[in-house]
Amino acid sequence: MKPYFNFPFLLQFSVLFVQLYGGASSYGEALSKSIMFFEGQRSGFLPKDQRLNWRGNSGLGDGSADNVDLIGGYYDAGDNVKFGFPMAFTTTMLAWSVIEFGEMMPPAELRNALVAIHWGTDYLLKTVAEPDRIYVQVGDPVKDHNCWERPEDMDTDRTVYRVDAPNPASDVAGETAAALAAASMAFRSSDPGYSQTILTTAIKVFEFADTYRGAYSDNTDIRSGACPFYCDYDGYQASDELLWGAAWLARASDDVKYMSYIENNAKPLGADENIYEFGWENKHAGLNVLVSKQVLEGNVYALESYKASAESFICTLLPDSSSWHIEYSPGGLIYRPGGSNLQHSTAITFLMLVYANYLEASSSSVNCGNISVGPAYLRGLAKYQVDYILGENPKGMSYMVGYGNNYPQRIHHRGSSLPSVWNHPKPIQCKEGTIYFNSSDPNPNVLIGAIVGGPQEDDEYGDDRADSRKSEPTTYINAPFVGVLAFFNANPSLTQVSTPK
User: What's 18-70 look like in SS3?
Assistant: First the structure.
């Protein structure tokens, strides 16, 4: 079965779009704004160099309900809850973006990216500061979601959720270990002392994850807060996060025991299953791509099953392949069922570029049965996704806020949609914000760089604040896109779509 669009037509469409709307994407501008977005998601005491200055301090009592300091970190989306699971994944992806593409970033943007990572790791260190305990969430999501108020005004319960041994938290702890290990690599040259601190912590956190196996949402007291928002739904008992954490520790520490762990647990933990998912919940495709680097470099042939799974995943993305599986919209956007579709497009695009780099370094290609493709084609396919998100699409809309002349004005985001604390100093209580939620006016505060959930399978987008599936931004949509934009900023003239040979 083939997708219901054809690339020659899409290439003609993109040329026509450039003629009508005035040129190709400015990847440097988009890169800068994609990183700036994270400043709008900050919780805690904001620094003096805060660029999105309509934000103010918030969550300054976080953790007090449990007599612990949990100030800081990121709000995951348009609400005011701090969910540890997606925050850790966001941090991992920001770090991976720097590891793979940091050398392509302008120095100022590399610094900004490291600052964004640091904001995440500083908070994650707080969540694992006590032995055999991990704090996984701050804020009652049900009460929070029943209000429409600025983070600076929060008066809902800042309930603290934690997991103590021997209760399981392999998913959150495994992802936290991955985040700290990956970040240790990102900081290795600029801040070696901090790099070593977070790597040492990552090793301890992974031990907790591996010793007490299971999903954190299996704990009854956690489930009421995490679900249905960030449960571990994939049904694999957090095995992917264990392997993911071990893979990052193997790369960050060069300790052979983690390579042995990945090798010995491939079948027991399901790594050899062809699961074509990658995101905050399911790490399988990303894990396989990450581990494949070692195989392609000729270092660890025992991990060949990971490379085979990675290339099986890559083949599912290629419309000319007999293994094609991933859906595309009529306009050419990668589509996965469910809400917040652009989280899939940005994450999968990131993996395509990373794997293209690995192939190029090893002078390899991917054999998909009826076709064989190399780095150039994967980069061309990735470029199509990037340009679609930045405005070359049937709606002619940039799905990055503040980028281009036509972008979402009514995003599902409390801080953006309510008057700032500087323009409206008086607190806006829980239900007092409803009038702003229901308003058809554009958001008064531009959350620069935010990538919204975006269109679904029909390429349509209504710019409706109430339609959170399409109009809500998240940190884990943006994080992989940082690396993607760094690559194309350094390589802007690559052909957008090429035909497999």
Answer: HHHHCCCCCHHHHHHHHHHHHHHCECECCCCCCCCCCCCCECCCCCHHHCCCC
Per CATH, domain 67-271 is 1.50.10.10: yes
Q: Tell me how far apart the alpha carbons of residues 98 and 438 are, in angstroms, rounded to a whole number.
A: 39
| CA dist 446 → 261, 274, 412, 422, 471 (Å) | 46, 41, 12, 14, 14
Is residue 350's pLDDT more than 60? yes
Fold annotation for 1-40+274-411+447-501: Glycosyltransferase (1.50.10)
- For residues 231 and 466, what is the distance between their CA atoms, to the nearest angstrom? 23
Q: 183-214: per-residue pLDDT in tens?
A: 999 999 999 999 999 999 999 999 999 999 99
Which of 12, 230, 5 is closest to 137 using CA atoms?
A: 230
Active site positions, annotated:
412
pLDDT band of residue 238 (cuts 50, 70, 90) is: low
Tokens of 53: 């200055």
Contacts of 435 (CB under 8 A, 6+ apart): none
Looking at residue 9, its pLDDT comes to 39
Ranges for all domains in the chain classified under CATH 1.50.10.10: 1-40+274-411+447-501, 67-271
Q: What is the largest CA-CA distance in the chain?
A: 65
Q: How many C-beta atoms lie closer than 10 Å to residue 432's C-beta? A: 15
